[in-house]
Amino acid sequence: MGFFRFTDLRQLVRSTRLALRTVKGAGWSLMAVTLTTAVLLGLVPVAMSLAMANIIGAAPGVHVAGLNSDEGTRLVVATVAYVVFLTLQGLVGSTSSAWAAWVRRQLDGRLRERVMRATTAPHGLRHLEDPALQSVLEAARRAAPGTGMSPGTIAGVLPSVLAYRIGLLARLIGLTYLAWPIGLAYAVVTVKSQDEMQRAIWRVAGGGGGVPPKEVGYQLDLATSAAPGKELRVFGLGQWVGDRYQSGMRAHIASVWERRRDFTPSLIVTLGLAAVVHIVALLVMGRSALRGELGIGELAFAMSSVMALIPFFNQDDMPLAFATTTLETIEEAERIVADRTLRIGGTRRAERLPARSIRFEEVRFAYPGGAEVLAGVDLELRSDERTALVGLNGAGKTTLVKLLCGMYEPTAGRITIDDGIPLTELDPVAWRRQLAVLFQDFSRFELAARDNIRYGAIHWDGDVDGAVERAAAAAGISGVLGSLPAAFDSPLAPGYEHGVDLSGGQWQRVALARALFAVDAGAQVLVLDEPTANLDVRAEADFFQTLLTLTSPALRQEAKPPLTTLMISHRFSTVRQADRIVVLSEGRIAEEGTHAELVEAGDTYARLFRAQADQYAAAREDSS
């Protein structure tokens, strides 16, 4: 009885239900048009077959009795009906194609928005590092128009998929009415053949739909992107990358064809059974017609139905399966992101915070699957004080910043604001408006210079242009930006009209201007994570001197709230003028104090400071 278990037909039912739900989500009008189109495309060909059967059945009577007879009336009505149905079929086919193309673009756009909302909605970053979500998002990213896997494909193929099944059902009903044993036999064969077809289709769709795996696509990206182009040429890697791509594609294509060749014995048996039923049906109905048990018109309809019921792959089932697979990845991404463990932060207001301090209390943190980065940090960042956080690479400085920004929650301990307000109780959006952060790996937006700066406080509606220019001047980049082809409106990316690229140091100053713009817009915490990584030693010293001046409490306007400044660097010599220096070592606060106090103590800071000072002195001697 295993042969009659229609397990894989459930895939078609599941994908059709998911497609209908997605179309309904885009609007009831689209749902109504889709179902109406499906019914018309499915039943109009059957109606045309009935009309043609009546034309054929009435023709002998007209030949004998003339056109004015009842048979003549039947012939005229059937002919008019056939022409009407033929016209309707053409209209539905042409309009549905144009409608589907428009809807496909709309639906693809909405579904991509769903992916973007799923990834940007959480206030933390943990979900973006979740391997399960990464694999899902990679599949969703590949669902681009033109790949055959676009979710919007369902807008074009769903009416056809439904119409095909509606047409099959109508013809099975007609055959059963004319000869129920034949109709029953075709019903079994049709259902079983559709089940086997779906098994073959989902073997391909389940394997990624023929899209190359990520590692193969990466080789193509290497060969066609500007950033790795320098090293590919310097190290002679062009041919090597090309060979890797070709070998990967050959292996991928071989696996795809292996899946497509994998026809199961049951499919062969099903097709053989269908051929037997087809031959028997033709013989039985032909014999019935010769005996006069079937009229010529009934025989014509039966023959057209038998031909339509021959098992074959519906060409629209494959893209529906591909689109369904992608829709499921989008829904899976939404489920992962909706998990309570990915939520962070509360609802408490954060305006004018911090007024006094930010405290890290026995804070511990470890990234998923990794060792502990922070191992019990106790640290107070006081308002109107410039604190420098120093330490070797990997000491946990950037991790501390991410915790301060609410990107992650500590695995132990807590962060509090002012009088013990837990950071986790604050509204993350409101809290981040209080932050002005220059990250070590800052973003380089391929947008106008003005936008690159004003994105520091996109919510602010004050004198934007004036604040942009003030921030650029404070960051020492206004002269460079003002000399660009379109000044501050120049895109900071080659390839655009008036577009230019900047040097690493210039980009860093743009990112600093973005942070200073946020301060001008009301942010009360300024965090600079390795802000001089792209500057030489002298430029770095000048930069910190300028920064210390800009953040001096004595120079802050009286109307401005107190500013909490945290400067992070692994270069000890450039932060010596900070109000307080904190040394982070092995995930803990090792020392804190002024530069003079730490040097006099002769501990970790003093040793590292002298070591770096000796390196700089040796470098100056070598250069001289």
A few lines on this structure:
By secondary structure, the protein is of the alpha/beta class. It has helices spanning 9-25, 28-65, 70-120, 131-141, 154-178, 180-205, 214-224, 229-234, 238-261, 265-290, 296-308, 317-338, 397-404, 428-432, 449-454, 464-474, 478-482, 504-520, 537-550, 595-601, 604-623, and strands at residues 357-366, 372-382, 386-390, 412-417, 421-422, 435-438, 525-529, 564-569, 580-585, 588-593. It folds into 3 domains: 12-341, Up-down Bundle (ABC transporter transmembrane region fold); 350-434 and 524-624, P-loop containing nucleotide triphosphate hydrolases (Rossmann fold); 443-523, P-loop containing nucleotide triphosphate hydrolases (Rossmann fold), CATH 3.40.50.300.
Any overview of this molecule?
The chain has 624 residues and is α/β, with parallel strands linked by helices. The protein folds into 3 domains: 12-341, ABC transporter transmembrane region fold; 350-434 and 524-624, P-loop containing nucleotide triphosphate hydrolases (Rossmann fold, 3-Layer(aba) Sandwich); 443-523, P-loop containing nucleotide triphosphate hydrolases (Rossmann fold), CATH 3.40.50. The chain has 21 helices and 10 strands. The protein is elongated, with a radius of gyration of 36 Å.
